[in-house]
Design brief:
By secondary structure, the protein is α/β, with parallel strands linked by helices. Among the domains are: 112 residues, Succinate dehydrogenase/fumarate reductase flavoprotein, catalytic domain (Flavocytochrome C3, Chain A, domain 1); 120 residues, Up-down Bundle (Methane Monooxygenase Hydroxylase, Chain G, domain 1), CATH 1.20.58. 35% of the residues lie in helices and 21% in strands. The protein is built from 15 helices and 23 strands. Strands 1, 2, 6, 7, 8, 9, 17 and 18 form an 8-stranded mixed β-sheet that branches. A 5-stranded mixed β-sheet has the order 19-16-10-22-23. A hairpin with a 5-residue loop joins strand 22 and strand 23. Helix 2 packs across helix 3, helix 3 crosses helix 10 and helix 5 packs across helix 14. It starts with a strand and ends in a 13-residue tail after the last strand. Bound molecules: flavin-adenine dinucleotide. The site of flavin-adenine dinucleotide has 47 residues, from helix 1, strand 2, helix 4, strand 7 and helix 5. Flavin-adenine dinucleotide (FAD) binds next to helix 1, strand 2, helix 4, strand 7 and helix 5. It is a peripheral membrane protein.
Length: 585
């Protein structure tokens, strides 16, 4: 039995981007538009709650900040791969987002004079990371959600796992899903869809990301014939706590923390003499890995992971408690280290996907030929507009979740109204697309050839492979090995079925579906990285250490062919204001 729902707008994902989109629809059109907000976890458990350090916005032009400066920092940070028109739109919308959150009750940290405080962040030439201690994402989620509950005519679907995006004749028709509690197959028909499913950090083993961040949205897009943009650009955050990978926010360096090697040296002076620890993340991560490769790191005897130290001791207990309470708690609980008295062991951890679903600057989802898939938007980390290009600046992601949610939400609502006025009937996905997806999922429960023990092995092997060959430093040999392993795992995965054959809370089945998704995403990342024979932003090729604007100032698009292979094509970068120059910090 297939349960059918109809909503004007269906939003997949209830992180910052999804919540902001829902709120935009409600605060502008109220009850007029019905919204379904779907999340595979309880709504407030979306990864966004873990965001720590801050959200970038220009708040103090009288003190020297400006839109042009924020845009320039972002574009230089992106190693000139960002689309500059998208960046301008982003920086201009941001200040109002901070003020709206303020009005809705977000307790931003304050300056002594009571005005909103901002802290320095990597690659920003003005301290413009707006924060609420080191729990910024938590407060942002809480504020958006508490605002949203004041509105009617929207429903939340928690623990509902979306499996496919239905597009027919270039028009969005709805999504299919599994209600995890009952195991029922659901179809959400909708005029407009907003995909806000977040990143794909879990394709790596050493990552700051929650277990749920498995790239489902990216993989669903691929299966629906939508290309992914710039997937080879994965951000490695310089300071993942060893051995777990839990994030130690850049705010720790923003507040004045130092990085030191085995010789007690502040090594960043050799890599970024001006910005030091507050150079952009790609620069700092490469510096740490160079120290480690040249023998100036430490080794954790249990995990075998090599690391450097993040020293906060000189900040003093009072400042650490006030500005970085969460970091102190994490270090004590997860590494047995109190940063007040001991430095913290850190190494680069997979942290962010610069790439994602191919969209224009209004977050409209595009096909390989650049045509809009009518009725479909993507917002937040899953989308690539592209603001972050080859390397995202810290504090720009939560910011983009807000602006993209706002733009996508507003546009989706307007589209619904327009199509209704034009008398277009409610969308009806064809029975064959529904039946096909139902079969893809539920046939697995009938098959017994191979148990799912292997799915956990496949997932582990994939994540180790990505850590080993598609990490901070890459080369042709390693990337080819990675690709070969990913393709083998993908083949092996075709014969893996869940051992649990029940319908109720079948997490075994969800793991199978997620792992299939992770493999497709990893395939895009590794393939894009192999073909890009240059170094730009977070993508560093030891065998091609220079940026090559002549051949590579372009976005990679990866898409899935009918015979289940990834193909690659390219699309130009929009440059409106600044020509690429050498990037120094
Ligand atoms: C530890 C940590 C700290 C960070 N700190 C900062 C910071 O200080 N500043 C900053 O700018 N950025 C920060 N980032 C990055 C930023 O937080 C994320 O990029 C951003 O929150 C992503 O938000 P999102 O709404 O796109 O997705 P998420 O918050 O990841 O939400 C994704 C949603 O999609 C749902 N979903 C996914 N797949 C499915 C499916 N198949 N079916 C149904 N639902 C699905 C999930 O349930 C969830 O609701 C941090 C990231 C991490 C991991």
């Amino acid at each position: 039995m297939v349960d059918m729902f109809y909503y004007d707008v269906v939003i997949v994902g209830s992180g910052l981007a999804g919540l902001r989109a829902a709120l935009e629809i409600k605060r502008t059109y109220g009850d007029k538009i019905s919204v379904a907000l779907i999340s595979k976890v309880q709504l407030m458990r979306s990864h966004s709650v873990a965001a720590q350090g801050g959200t970038a916005a220009v708040l103090y032009p009288e003190e020297g900040d400006s839109f042009a400066l924020h845009a320039w920092d972002t574009i230089k940070g992106s190693d000139f791969l960002a689309d500059q028109d998208a960046v301008w739109l982003f920086v201009k919308l941001m200040p109002e987002e901070i003020r709206l959150l303020e009005r809705w009750g977000l307790p931003w940290s304050r300056r002594p004079d009571g005005r909103i405080a901002q802290r320095p962040f990597g690659g920003h030439s003005f301290p413009r990371a707006t924060y609420a201690a080191d729990k910024t994402g938590f407060y942002e989620m809480q504020t958006l959600y508490s605002r949203l509950v004041g509105y009617d005519n929207w429903d939340r679907y928690d623990e509902v796992f979306v499996t496919s995006i239905i597009i027919e004749d270039g028009v969005f028709k709805g999504v299919t899903a599994i209600d995890m509690r009952s195991g029922e197959f659901l179809v959400f028909r909708a005029r407009a869809g907003i995909i806000a499913t977040g990143g794909a950090g879990r394709i790596y083993k050493f990552t700051t990301y929650a277990h749920t961040v498995t790239g489902d949205g990216q993989a669903m897009a691929l299966r629906a014939g939508i290309p992914l943009k710039d997937m080879e650009f994965i951000q490695f955050h310089p300071t993942g706590l060893v051995p777990s990978g839990i994030l130690i926010t850049e705010g720790a360096r923003g507040e004045g923390g130092y990085l030191i090697n085995k010789n007690g040296e502040r090594f960043m002076k050799r890599y970024a003499p001006q910005r030091m620890e507050l150079a952009p993340r790609d620069v700092v991560s490469r510096a740490i890995m160079t120290e480690i490769r040249e023998g100036r790191g430490f080794r954790d005897p249990v995990s075998g992971l090599e690391y450097v130290l993040l020293d906060l001791r000189h900040l003093g207990e009072e400042k650490i408690n006030e500005r970085l309470p969460g970091i102190r708690e994490i270090a004590i609980k997860h590494a047995g280290i109190d940063p007040v008295t001991e430095p913290i062991p850190v190494r680069p951890a997979a942290h962010y996907s610069m790439g994602g679903i191919h969209t224009d600057k209004y977050y409209r989802v595009l096909t390989v030929d650049g045509k809009w898939v009518k009725g479909l938007w993507a917002a937040g980390e899953v989308a690539s507009a592209s603001i972050h290009g080859a390397n995202r600046l810290g504090a720009n992601s939560t910011a983009e979740c807000l602006t993209s949610g706002r733009i996508a939400g507003r546009q989706a609502a307007q589209y619904v109204i327009k199509t209704k006025e034009m008398g277009m009937p409610d969308p009806k996905p064809s029975e064959s697309s529904i039946a096909k997806e139902e079969k893809r999922i539920f046939d697995m429960l009938l098959k017994h050839e191979s148990g799912s023990a292997t799915v956990y092995e496949i997932r582990a092997k994939l994540r180790e492979t990505m850590d080993k060959y598609v990490y901070v430093f890459r080369d042709e040999e390693g990337l080819k090995k990675a690709l070969k392993i990913i393709l083998e795992l993908r083949e092996a995965m075709k014969k893996v079925y869940p051992s649990d054959k029940s319908r109720i809370y079948n997490t075994d089945m969800i793991t199978v579906l997620e792992t299939q998704n992770m493999l497709d995403v990893a395939y895009s990342v590794a393939y894009g990285a192999l073909l890009r024979t240059e170094s730009r932003g977070a993508h560093y090729r030891i065998d091609y250490p220079k940026r090559d604007d002549e051949n590579w100032l372009k976005h990679t698009l990866t898409y899935l062919t009918a015979d289940d292979k990834i193909e690659v094509t390219y699309t130009p970068v929009t440059i409106t204001t600044w020509k690429p120059i050498e990037r120094k910090y």
